[in-house]
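Ticket #4471: structure output looks truncated?

Reporter: J.K.
Steps to reproduce: submitted the chain below (195 residues) through the standard prediction queue, then opened the result file.
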Amino acid sequence: MTPLRNLLADRDGATLVEFALVAPVLLLMLLGMFDMGYNYYVQSQLQGAIQQAARDSGIEGAHSRMDEIDARVIDAVHAIVPSAEVTFSRKAYARFSDVARPEDFSDVDGNGKCNDGEPFEDVNGNGAWDEDRGAEGLGGARDAVLYVVTVSYQRAFAITAFVGMPDTFTTQATTVLRNQPYGEQAVSSLIRNCA
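Returned output as attached by the reporter:
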């Protein structure tokens, strides 16, 4: 009976067993924190690159240098994530308050939709009523430009299979800056009818 009592009272291997139980959870938490930190680092570098690109885009003659400006943003992202996919979007607005606002229309039938020949102001000049009045591109002098860069890449740490997260991480950086006053602001809105 004494050897059995000695075996039950022996605590020499308890730490190893406890560590074996805690280690997987600890490892997942550490990898999750590393993944989160890496993604925040990419986001902060992207935000800095897009701020610089937006400033360079707001000067006269930037239309002819857009590929060069975009290439600098891509280079900044690829310095951290070489396999990242980078996409750009630019929309120009007459004022900051116009960003992401729909084009104005007269809701004659009161249904909240631009339809049945109701008149609308075609601010972006594309011939159709839009939920977003912005015109694609850099716009002109004094226009407010919404500049959006989206980056997608494979996660750096392979924890997705264990926690049910997607393998691809997508982040987006956005800035709105006004173009410099290098000329008169163009105004080209027309009154059209909804389809």
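Triage note (M.O.): checked the attachment and the full token line is present. Helices lie at 2-9, 14-57, 66-78, 160-163.
Status: closed, working as intended.
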